[in-house]
Amino acid sequence: MTDRALSVVRAGALTTVQDLGRPGHAHLGVPRSGALDGPAAALVNRLVGNSPEAAVLETTLNGCAVRPRSTVTAAVGGAPCRVTVNGRPVAWGAPVRVPAGALVDVGAAVSGVRSYVAVSGGIAVEPVLGSRSTDLLSGLGPPPLTDGAVLPLGRPTGLHARVDVAPHPAPPAELVLRVTLGPRDDWFTPEAVRAFTSHAYSVSSASNRIGLRTEGPALERALTRELPSEGMVLGAVQVPPDGRPVVFLADHPTTGGYPVIAAVRAADLPAAAQAVPGTPLRFVAVRRR
Predict the structure, then answer these.
(1) How far apart are CA 212 and CA 193, in angstroms?
(2) Are 95 and 75 in contact (CB under 8 A)?
(3) String of b and e for 42-54 (b: at least 16 CB within 10 Å)?
(4) Which of 286, 128, 122, 65 is nearest to 197 (CA)?
(5) Which of 27, 62, 125, 134 has the highest CB neighbour number within 10 Å of its CB?
(6) Beta carbons of 83 and 109 less than 8 angstroms apart
């Protein structure tokens, strides 16, 4: 039994293994997947000396607890939370030495939704289509963590960062998503398009890794006929029959039969990953580049 492993003591509400995802397989019906807050995942990897491609743990709301079988360097970022090693508080947002057998407890998010846990060497589960990411929609990759699971770790390849704490962007008090209208904005009434980019929405508690659901004005369609299924991209804003926009996130389906009124700029999607239910939301139209 290898000592390069991580035992899961408390899996939390939803903790998954994530890396950069598996882009380029949409033609096979495979979503991109990967860490929802990519910059946060990249930062914790840098803090422990991992490459950007290394897999990390993505927690949801109430964190997780793990026990390494060998001495490792760990870092927790993303949503701010309390972190302890064997019950003693340690720094959040900084590399921490964890002795073999010590319990690393990542607490509930103080703000935001998803925290990221990097361990030196990275989570070394078997890749599927070039990625170690868990995809909740297709079922590819490792299943979400369960208590008692054991995750293999890779060998460290670099030195950890020598910083006291690394700056992280705060989770949004208001989520502002810049959108480019189209390709199906003409399927909605002019009043609906104006409402979409001028009225206030909020983040729904039904949001998940597949899509950020919204609460707010229902958008009225000008065309009510059926739309043949067509390709969907990361950040597409699809409008289902209830009229409330849904922003597609990393585990989104690759095709869909509801009209897409707009697409969110990729740079704004990490903030969407940290927006708690009830967060005010505005869609701001920008010109096509």
Answers:
(1) 19
(2) yes
(3) bbbbbbbbbeeeb
(4) 286
(5) 134
(6) no
Per-residue model confidence as pLDDT tens digits over 221-238: 999 999 999 999 999 999
Largest CA distance in the chain: 64
Structural contact between residues 96 and 77, judged by C-beta atoms closer than 8 angstroms: no
The tens digit of pLDDT for each residue in 4-52 reads: 999 999 999 999 999 999 999 988 889 999 999 999 999 999 999 999 9
Q: Is the pTM higher than 0.85?
A: yes
Burial of 244-262, coded b for 16+ CB within 10 Å and e otherwise, reads bbbbbbbbbbbebebbbbb
Structure tokens at 188: 């909605």
Name residues whose C-beta falls within 8 Å of residue 88's C-beta, 6 or more positions apart in sequence.
none
The dihedrals phi and psi of 163, each to the nearest 5 degrees, come to: -135, 155
Instruction: Tell which residue, 26, 193, 12, has the closest CA to residue 108.
Output: 12
Sign of the four-CA dihedral 286, 205, 142, 44: positive
Per the CB < 8 A criterion, the answer to whether 253 and 209 are in contact is no
Instruction: Determine phi and psi for 123, rounding to 5 degrees.
Output: -75, 120
